[in-house]
Specification:
six-stranded mixed β-sheet; alpha+beta; Peptide/nickel transport system substrate-binding protein; 14 helices; 583 residues; 24% helix; 20% strand; 26 strands
């Protein structure tokens, strides 16, 4: 029996609960910088300079990239990039000016961009500029790892069309005059609308916007409804490879895993995901689909990303809770109370694995420190160890919550800003609507209580949680878990753990960590990467959690082109097509 491709059709995708696309402007701020707004929404319309992921492997797809492979000079400090002459939907040709426009904005507004890290791109550039109409150059302040530059720096760039270079008063020229970048940024952010507001009314205007309707990807936005239904149609002016087969791609909002699963059962969606508690991997291999509750009508595809999962702890909290968080031994005790093996085995039913530090365990690589791999992390699950850490540092753990009985900053004392009589108690906000995450958080709460740490749980809508509990000075949240973490390009730590980084969710600042991170980006030496990750694992600036497939995708049996899964989380629905079975 052979499959006959069908041209056209509509595919409907059920989105993760609580995460509608919140930003269309690809200069996305840290509080909304994530897979949902970028990889599953913006990049369908606006192609980045380099496309991450090729045929399921963690590498650059040169065919889908707007830029050609960088060419380096003999000093190793200057690279030039030729821009492919793709077309914008308004007829403009993609060019060097579109990259310079982006770079000028990044130079002026870098701290408001989610991938920005202080001291790195573009701060580490001596100069950048237009070499020819189709070529740009970048000169760095010293020689860096070429892999790091490509994967972690140049991938930040999304060329922007001339049509976006304007303010409320009309056309501007931030492309050639960097002084105008601030005003253009303010205009474009106003066109986007409030990035925290959850009301969809401002998003309904995106499809008809003279700004956002200028695209260079294979899709354009047809509509965004008040109910959160996003509809894409093929960009008829797309000039890159792999034009769309489908007539429409719809993305529908869901409020819970259960509702999303009901949509799959009813046939109302063709791409969704199996609630984690329903998927069972009896062999314990999370990379392979186990028995499918939906039967033969769907394909079960685990989405294994090059990522880590963690919960953030707020170093900038100005209360005594922040003083406790700033004590390494307390964070180490919290990590020792997290039973990751239980989560992988029981909560995620074999579709999970322990995350021992800041480098992804899967897909397997030689990037993980052997020292960490051999011991299962610096702080594996050990309640007695947690109790000992607290007892050794001034806490009476005979009751729960433990009570500070030795205040002060000397040996064996609790630490600065922790008065006698303080109870060891934290609030933990987590993403609502995810039963598996709720179960994992309840287990963490119960185990922590056995060690003398009180965890007070509160469910919060996912997008609100990310917006409110992000980086920032003197925020009041204490522990925060959105059930995920970070998808790496190349797993150095400047985005997550560098002091002042836009996505340093814990607001952690540590001079030694900054020094070790700096080493990882100037050499391809694995020893530098090992030293960095061992320090992070020991300090526990976040609480590492079991990692699992981001989703157990359920794909309609007659829909092809969905796999291989991109390890960075990007999607290519232009490759999807329906088939009819022929005997």
């Amino acid at each position: 029996m052979t499959d006959k491709p069908i041209k056209g059709g509509v595919a409907t995708w059920a989105c993760l609960p609580g995460f509608p696309p919140a930003v269309i402007f690809p200069f996305t701020p840290g509080e909304r910088f994530g897979v949902r707004s970028l990889y599953e929404f913006q990049m369908l319309m606006y192609r980045p300079l380099y496309w991450l992921g090729r045929d399921g492997a963690p590498e650059i797809d040169w065919d889908l990239s707007v830029g050609e492979e960088p060419v380096w000079d003999e000093t190793g400090r200057t690279c030039t990039v030729r821009i492919k002459p793709w077309k914008w939907s308004n007829g403009e040709t993609l060019c060097a000016d579109n990259v310079i426009f982006w770079m000028n904005m990044l130079k002026v507004k870098g701290p408001r961009f989610g991938a920005y890290s202080e001291g790195y791109f573009p701060d580490n550039l001596v100069s950048f500029g237009k070499v020819a109409d189709d070529t740009v150059s970048f000169t760095f302040d010293k020689a860096y790892s070429k892999n790091w530059v490509l994967l972690n720096q140049l991938t930040m760039i999304t060329p922007m069309p001339k049509a976006w270079d304007r303010t409320a008063d009309g056309p501007a020229d931030a492309t050639h005059d960097i002084e105008q970048a601030e005003a253009v940024y303010e205009f474009l952010m106003a066109e986007n609308g409030d990035v925290v507001e959850e009301d969809n009314s401002h998003r309904t205007r995106w499809a008809d916007s003279p700004v956002w309707s200028v695209v260079n990807g294979p899709w354009r936005l047809k509509s965004y409804t008040e109910e959160g239904v996003v509809t894409f149609v093929p960009n008829e002016h797309y000039s890159g490879p792999n034009p769309a087969h489908l007539d429409e791609l719809r993305q529908v909002s869901t409020t819970s895993d259960e509702q999303q699963y009901e949509l799959l059962q009813s046939g109302d969606v063709q791409v969704g995901f199996l609630p984690p508690g329903m998927g069972v991997q009896p062999d314990g291999d999370p990379t392979k689909g186990g028995p499918n509750p939906l039967g033969d009508g769907f394909q079960l595809e685990p989405q294994i990303l090059f990522n880590i999962n963690f919960m953030a702890v707020n170093f900038s909290n100005p209360t005594v809770a922040g003083n406790m968080i700033r004590q390494p031994y307390i964070r180490q005790a919290l990590q020792s109370c997290f039973d990751q093996e239980y989560g992988a085995r029981e909560v995620y039913q074999g579709y999970g694995w322990s995350q021992t530090g800041s480098i992804p365990v899967l897909p397997k690589s030689d990037l993980v420190s052997p020292k960490i791999a051999e011991r299962g992390g610096f702080w594996p699950f050990d309640l007695e160890k947690a109790r000992q850490l607290l007892s050794d540092n001034g806490w009476d753990v005979s009751a729960s919550p433990a009570v500070c009985v030795r205040p002060g900053t000397g040996p064996g004392e609790a630490g600065e800003g922790i008065p006698a009589g303080t109870e060891l108690s934290f609030s933990l906000r987590y993403w609502e609507g995810r039963p598996s995450l709720a179960r994992l958080m309840a287990q963490f709460r119960d185990d922590a209580a056995k060690a003398g740490i009180e965890i007070r749980l509160e469910e919060v809508m996912g997008s609100v949680l990310v917006a409110e509990d992000g980086p920032g000075e003197k925020r009041m949240w204490q522990l925060s878990c959105w059930g995920g973490g970070w998808v790496y390009n190349y797993p150095t730590g400047e985005n997550l753990f560098q002091s002042g980084a836009a996505c340093n969710f814990s607001n952690w600042r540590d001079a030694k960590a900054d020094e070790l991170i700096a080493k990882t980006v100037t050499t391809d030496s694995l020893e530098a990467l090992y030293e960095y990750q061992e320090y992070i694992a020991e300090q526990a600036p976040v609480i590492f959690m079991p990692t699992f497939p981001r989703r157990l995708f359920e794909v309609a049996g007659n829909l092809r082109g969905f796999s291989p899964i991109n390890p960075y989380g990007l999607i290519n629905p232009e490759n999807w097509y329906y088939v009819e079975e022929q005997s």
